[in-house]
Design goal:
The protein is an alpha/beta fold and 337 residues long. It has helices at 13-24, 74-86, 130-146, 164-178, 210-222, 256-264, 283-286, 317-335, and strands at 3-8, 29-36, 44-47, 50-56, 67-70, 90-93, 124-126, 148-157, 228-235, 242-250, 269-271, 292-299, 306-313. The protein is 30% helix and 24% strand. The strands form two sheets. The protein has a seven-stranded mixed sheet with strand order 3-4-2-1-5-6-7, sandwiched between helices. Strands 9-8-10-13-12-11 form a six-stranded mixed sheet. A hairpin with a 2-residue loop joins β3 (44-47) and β4. The structure holds adenosine-2'-5'-diphosphate and (2R)-2-aminohexanedioic acid. (2R)-2-aminohexanedioic acid is lined by residues 95-96, 129-131, 157, 161-162, 200, 211, 214, 315.
């Protein structure tokens, strides 16, 4: 059977990767529609070599659509997911709009595929934040074995997480600065080229950013409601690939050797941990593929049962588009008729 798919935000950084993932993974697509803002309507893109004209997103865009992949920002998801669901489409939403809704499953296929079963309540399944996805892919096998009690995570996040305007801004700033020009700063509050910004998204009253609190709340919803977790999220001048320094405290002792053994066979994970040979995960290796790379595994000698890890993945692929398409694959394989 083939399925009619709508890609909402088809012209964006994540939307265009969703299209590529559908092609690469040979998803059984019947009709495909590309939706974006009025600015892009009429633009011609392709699907498997055939032209597809971009249409303006409206409430009437979802007639006959089986699955709508949303990545056009939270406001569009809030406004249009209910219309798409009412028209009979299942929405897989990459924005943060619906993630914490108790009637919306928040899914990472390697971690909690069973949650997809609850898709019918609102007709919406949420794709977690990119920094959450790669962290729980790496931690789930360790949690199953040793029960993680506490996580301390610091992120090093690529500009592609912000979207195509931020990719262009880093590119422009680097080129301009190398020519001695003063940089234009528009997407981020400060220059991002040759700099690090300890702010991703806006600040909450607590002093944490929204990005940091997404990691806290989403991890609890996906993996374990009672896990203690604290996060610091930092934007770095990298185009593709988020990196994370993750410290965990476990209930049961977890040695480096055991962690490596568990991660070697974990779904979606590639162990890259040979420090003597200078091998460890780097964003330039993670970019363009779908696995979460894990390395630099060391015991945290400051506590009884602690481990440090370095976790890297392509934020646009596994952190967004691939995860959404994997959810769609399970949905059509197991749930949709
Ligand atoms: P458009 O290209 O027409 O602006 P990115 O995350 O790379 O910035 O991409 C955002 C995506 O969301 C783009 O496809 C963009 O379309 C789409 N988008 C932004 N605003 C709207 C809107 N008001 N209605 C529909 N799509 C939108
Ligand atoms: C970033 N993680 O790297 C963000 C992007 O909630 O889906 C994704 C924001 C989200 O900037």
């Amino acid at each position: 059977k083939q399925w009619n798919i709508a890609v909402v935000g088809a012209t964006g950084a994540v939307g265009s990767q969703m299209i590529e993932c559908l092609e690469e993974r040979d998803f059984p697509v019947g009709k495909i529609s590309y939706l974006a803002s009025a600015r892009s309507a009429g633009q011609v893109l392709e699907f498997k070599g055939k032209p597809v004209v971009v249409e303006e997103l409206t409430r009437n865009s979802f007639e006959g659509v089986d699955i709508a992949l949303f990545s056009a920002g939270g406001d569009r998801s809030r406004e249009f997911c209910p219309a798409a669901a009412a028209a009979g489409a299942v929405c897989i939403d990459n924005s943060s709009a619906w993630r914490m809704d108790p009637d919306v499953p928040l899914v990472v296929p390697e971690v909690n595929p069973q949650a997809i079963a609850g898709y019918g309540k609102k007709g919406i399944i949420a794709n977690p934040n990119c920094s959450t996805i790669q962290m729980v892919v790496a931690l789930k096998p360790l949690h199953d074995y040793a029960t993680i009690r506490r996580i301390v995570v610091s992120t090093y996040q690529a500009v592609s997480g912000t979207g195509s305007k931020a990719i262009a801004e880093l590119d422009r700033q680097v080129k301009g600065l190398l020519q001695g020009k003063s940089p234009d700063v528009s997407v981020y509050p400060h220059q991002i080229a040759f700099n690090c910004l300890p702010q991703i998204d806006s600040f909450e009253e607590s002093g944490y950013t929204k990005e940091e609190m997404k990691m806290v709340n989403e991890t609890r919803k996906i993996m374990a409601a009672d896990i203690r977790i604290t996060a610091t999220a930092v934007r770095v001048p990298v185009f593709y690939g988020h990196s994370e320094s993750v410290n965990i405290e476990t209930e049961k002792k977890l040695t480096v050797a055991k962690a490596r053994e568990l991660l070697k066979k974990a779904p979606g994970v590639k162990l890259v941990d040979d420090p003597a040979k200078g091998r460890y995960p780097m964003p330039m290796d993670a970019a363009g593929q779908d696995l979460t790379l894990v390395g630099r595994i060391r015991e945290d000698e400051s506590i009884e049962n602690g481990l440090n890890l370095w976790v890297v993945a392509d934020n646009i692929r596994k952190g967004a588009a691939t995860n959404a398409v994997q959810i769609a694959e399970i949905l059509v394989g197991k749930y949709l008729k």
